[in-house]
Amino acid sequence: MMPGPDNAMAPPRPPTHLKPSSRLADVRYDIRGPLARRALELEKSGKPIIKLNIGNPGAFGFAMPEHLRRAVAEHIPQSEAYAHQKGILPAREAIVEDQRHRGVRVAVDDVFVGNGVSELIISALRGLLDDGDEVLVPSPDYPLWTAAVTLNGGRAVHYPCPREQGFLPDLERLRALVTPRTRALVIITPNNPTGAVYPRPVLEAMVALAEEHGLVVFSDEIYDRILYDGAEHVPVATLVQHTLCGTFGGLSKVHRGCGLRVGWLSFSGARAHADEYLQSLDLLASLRLCGNVTGQWTVPAALGGPDTISALTAPGGRLYQTRQAILAGTRASAYLDVVAPQGAMYAFVRAKRDRLPEFDDQRFALDLLERRQVLIVPGSSFNVAYRDHFRITLLPDEAIVADVFGRMESLLDEYAAARSAKA
Question: Is 231 found in the same domain as 109?
Fold first, then answer.
């Protein structure tokens, strides 16, 4: 019956306030957070912003190697259908071969290819954690790890990597954090944000702790070949025998293919006890059908092709020279210092408390953006208790770095002058 004057339909109720999931209450990713949104607003108003917040090589003129581009073009016809949920066979075979060259025994069925390492981190933890389970995560950390633990109902327990120890893990304090609820140990080397590269004895001690307690080892090695001054990257999987080890790698950093969104997770070590867990990851991979097929065709070309990163990290190479410019900028600064990064593409810079006792990383980052048009990431974004650090990327060229340090120094001069005026 059509509504008439006496039975007219009631007006629609106004919608209630739409709240996000409570699981997001403690989730942060400040690398693309409020400061980045403010930077976009400033750009729209006509102000050019120097963006040092994200390790995005293509945004700084680093081209993806030509042999990867050819692989994309040549395999378009083979990229139109869904692929196997774990990834196309040629990609997984190339990953197996690459791991074999590093001394790691992996089978094709032990490899998952996904839409970047980020997706695989979330899936690996989703398949592992029940509410309240704990995961040991370094501090400073790449904040996706903490966020992914939280999103999947777990609790991230941060083990300290003190600046005084070159940002290497404090092994005694790490051991003290293990509880009956601990399920996994996360290792990030070369490290984001600090650039620390963990030496073999440190890794051996961490692996021994994980094996003693039956913890899964998750090793984030996305920067494995970005090394400086003779630093050696030790594949963690070569040390793990008596527990499950998951190694993460991908194309975004070493091969400058961020937009391809291709990462992988390979499992090694003891696997017989982990069959149900690995089957759960296969289920999760199936639910999203498959990863980006076009990008996967570049994996054999990337892992079997020429080395295109070493020239960039050697003396005279662009990454190396930018790193040198950052070291020079901190040496020349009255207010800043840094532990020289041994790997990855970031520097974790500290403000000297004796010169700037009231320094606050969040305030400095906002002031630097608003008053000097430079976007950085506050150090507290990386799950540390202190607020006197910030992260910048090594991707810009030397001239930009020199300009940025000039802008930072002038702002810090203003801070120091204001403090003196109040004294």
Answer: yes
